[in-house]
Amino acid sequence: MNIVLNEVTNTIHKHDTGRSDRQTVCGATNHVSQDDLSRVTVIEPELETLHASKCGRCFDDGGGY
Ligand SMILES: [Zn+2]
Fold this sequence. Notes:
single chain; 65 residues; mainly beta; four-stranded mixed β-sheet; 0% helix; globular; binds zinc ion
Protein backbone atom coordinates (compact mmCIF):
# COMPACT_ATOMS: atom_id res chain seq x y z
CA MET A 1 0.00 0.00 0.00
CA ASN A 2 1.05 3.58 -0.51
CA ILE A 3 1.08 5.89 2.45
CA VAL A 4 1.95 9.50 3.01
CA LEU A 5 4.08 10.33 6.03
CA ASN A 6 3.82 13.80 7.51
CA GLU A 7 7.35 14.25 8.78
CA VAL A 8 6.41 17.23 10.95
CA THR A 9 3.69 15.54 12.98
CA ASN A 10 4.99 12.01 12.38
CA THR A 11 1.57 10.89 11.23
CA ILE A 12 0.79 8.28 8.61
CA HIS A 13 -1.98 8.84 6.09
CA LYS A 14 -3.27 6.69 3.31
CA HIS A 15 -2.27 7.94 -0.09
CA ASP A 16 -5.13 8.89 -2.36
CA THR A 17 -4.13 6.85 -5.39
CA GLY A 18 -6.63 8.66 -7.58
CA ARG A 19 -4.65 11.85 -7.28
CA SER A 20 -1.18 12.88 -8.19
CA ASP A 21 1.59 13.85 -5.83
CA ARG A 22 1.22 13.34 -2.09
CA GLN A 23 -2.48 13.82 -1.50
CA THR A 24 -4.06 11.88 1.32
CA VAL A 25 -7.44 10.19 1.55
CA CYS A 26 -8.57 12.41 4.43
CA GLY A 27 -7.25 15.62 2.94
CA ALA A 28 -5.70 16.67 6.24
CA THR A 29 -2.40 17.41 4.55
CA ASN A 30 -3.79 19.56 1.77
CA HIS A 31 -2.35 22.64 3.40
CA VAL A 32 0.90 21.04 4.48
CA SER A 33 3.99 21.81 2.45
CA GLN A 34 4.80 18.97 0.09
CA ASP A 35 8.37 19.22 1.37
CA ASP A 36 7.18 17.92 4.72
CA LEU A 37 5.45 14.88 3.24
CA SER A 38 6.97 11.63 2.13
CA ARG A 39 5.24 9.09 -0.02
CA VAL A 40 6.19 5.62 1.14
CA THR A 41 5.30 2.21 -0.18
CA VAL A 42 4.99 -0.37 2.60
CA ILE A 43 3.32 -3.66 3.28
CA GLU A 44 0.71 -3.29 5.98
CA PRO A 45 2.59 -5.04 8.84
CA GLU A 46 5.47 -2.63 8.36
CA LEU A 47 3.25 0.27 9.42
CA GLU A 48 3.79 -0.73 13.02
CA THR A 49 7.55 -0.49 12.65
CA LEU A 50 7.51 3.12 11.48
CA HIS A 51 6.81 4.40 15.00
CA ALA A 52 4.48 7.04 13.65
CA SER A 53 0.87 7.76 14.57
CA LYS A 54 -1.87 6.63 12.26
CA CYS A 55 -4.36 9.20 11.09
CA GLY A 56 -7.75 8.57 12.67
CA ARG A 57 -9.57 9.42 9.48
CA CYS A 58 -7.44 7.28 7.18
CA PHE A 59 -7.21 4.27 9.50
CA ASP A 60 -10.01 2.75 11.53
CA ASP A 61 -7.61 2.01 14.38
CA GLY A 62 -5.81 5.32 14.19
CA GLY A 63 -5.69 8.06 16.73
CA GLY A 64 -5.95 11.78 16.08
CA TYR A 65 -4.64 13.49 13.03
ZN1 LIG B 1 -5.30 10.95 7.06
